[in-house]
Design goal:
This protein is an alpha/beta fold. 37% of the residues lie in helices and 27% in strands. It is built from 7 helices and 10 strands. It is globular, with a radius of gyration of 17 Å. The relative contact order is 0.21. The model has no long low-confidence stretch (mean pLDDT 94). The structure holds adenine. Adenine is lined by residues 92-94, 167-169, 186-188, 211-212, 214, 218, 222.
Amino acid sequence: MKIAIMGAMIEEIEPILSKLDHHPENSELDYILSNLKNIKLHYIADNRFFEAKYKGIDVIVAYSKIGKVFASLTASVLIEHFGAEKLLFSGVAGAIREDLKIGDLVAATKLCQHDLDITAFGHPYGYVPEGKIYIQSDPELLALAKDVARRKGIELKEAVIATGDQFIADPERKEWIKNSFGADAIEMEGAAVAVVCDAFDVPFFILRAISDAADMDAGFDFDTFLKSSSKRSADFVMSMLDRMV
Ligand code: ADE
């Protein structure tokens, strides 16, 4: 079993890299480059991929850079080049639903692209021909996440996640996304990863910890809580991995 773990930013995957096991093929150069002796570095498509073992299973970790295009590229490489059989995404999101507070963990039940718009041709927002407005998360990984949360006494909320190539710091746009898609949280990669995994038939799970409320303070809150929320999300994904080994 080979499992991909993906984030968008280095801050989102650093807590995961620090927990991986020794990789026997690692060279001195890789060691210096990665600064983590347990990880084998690959450079593909202008990005780094960190190959390692975790409790005996093969894991491949990468951060894509921000946005849907980079996320699609990274997810595709994880699946097509590295042969990932499941993909777990860890990172942060802006809250749309009122009850979601900074640090809360949200698991995507389904994901959509809020900035996909060919409504000029009579199609609904988020839809292109031969595509789907919503991609459903893998029910088994979702069930595993709920079980991990229950056993550890961690609150895990389910959420419809809307993805787009925009950092939302605007109450009006936030409200529009909420009303148009029934979205609970917003970020910039999840639906792109979902589209790729769905196309390749690879089960996926998108986890996010809330970093801001997508409002006027979002930029400041994001910078303040990126690290702590990333760690919360990453720690939970590692707990899921513990159950998959
Ligand atoms: N990721 C975290 N917060 C976000 C926001 N407000 N908009 C888009 N992506 C985000």
